[in-house]
Specification:
alpha+beta; 3 helices; transmembrane; transmembrane helix; Prepilin peptidase dependent protein B; N_methyl_site
Length: 159
């Protein structure tokens, strides 16, 4: 019986391995750039989400400013300082008054831009607010977030 040879010779296998090695090395060169671009776009998206959240929060409070389901005294929107502090009052629980106690449920909320940081605080007494708002939550200001976004966009175009 004649023996029929099947399969690849050693030389063919070596040539196939050399070609696939060259192709894999070429593809691996682009992997770090792909990962860097993926990380950059993830950061941009997170930054855009953060900016949207801050703008939405402030805008919602400004829209609600002055709402009262009864007889409330005082201004619904007050701009103090040199225009970098806004105090918003609205009747969140529709009980007909602007509550100031307890502080966690206060109907007054202050927003202040200080040293490129947007600070927010539920306010108890408007007199203390004029003296200065103490920060409860420190958030990057919108201008700082926007500058970071622009820097990241420029950096991603260079890569």
């Amino acid at each position: 019986m004649p023996v029929k040879e099947q399969g690849f010779s050693l030389l063919e296998v070596l040539i196939a391995m050399a070609i696939s090695s060259v192709l894999l090395l070429g593809a691996a060169r682009f992997l770090p750039a792909l990962q860097r671009e993926s990380l950059t776009s993830t950061r941009k998206l997170a930054l855009e989400d953060e900016i949207w959240l801050r703008v939405f929060t402030v805008a919602k409070h400004l829209q609600r400013a002055g709402y009262c389901h009864g007889i409330c005294t005082g201004e619904g929107l007050e701009i103090v300082g040199q225009g970098d502090c806004v105090i918003v009052q609205w009747d969140a629980n529709s009980n007909g008054i602007w509550d100031r106690e307890p502080v966690k449920e206060s109907d007054q909320i202050g927003f202040r831009l200080k040293e490129h940081v947007l600070e927010t605080l539920r306010v108890r007494h408007p007199v203390k607010v004029r003296a200065g708002i103490k920060s409860l939550i420190r958030m990057p200001s919108l201008s700082t977030l926007f500058r970071s976004y622009v820097r990241m966009s420029a950096a991603s175009r260079r890569c």
